[in-house]
Amino acid sequence: MMERYIKIYVKVNSDFDSTGYMLPRSITWNDGRIFKIEAVKDLRPACALSGGHSGDCYTVVIQGEEKHLFFERTSNLFASRCGRWYVEKPLAG
To answer: How far, in Å, CA of 36 to CA of 12, rounded?
Structure first.
């Protein structure tokens, strides 16, 4: 049986280098908790388990554990909005 997931959109502080590479540095949850990203282990194009949207999947290390952080690209309707960050949480069931 395939596990189902929901997206949880989060605030992410990122740095951009001179080549345009985006490097996430910390995640802030809606309740204000901040989690420092200790390392980025991998970056690859990926679709969300929860809905198939395209974007990028960052494998990050937070508190010594590997986690997946997704960047969902948006359409170019708004010049100042290029996408949103989210994590996926398994649905209880």
So the answer is: 10
Please give the Cα distance from 12 to 4 (Å, whole number).
24
Distance separating alpha carbons of residues 49 and 36, to the nearest angstrom: 24
Are 91 and 18 within 8 A, CB to CB?
no
What's the maximum distance between 2 C-alpha atoms anywhere in the chain? 45
Give the tens place of pLDDT for each residue, 18-38.
998 899 999 999 999 999 999
In terms of residue numbers, what domain contains 72?
A: 5-90
> 37 φ, ψ to 5°?
-90, 115
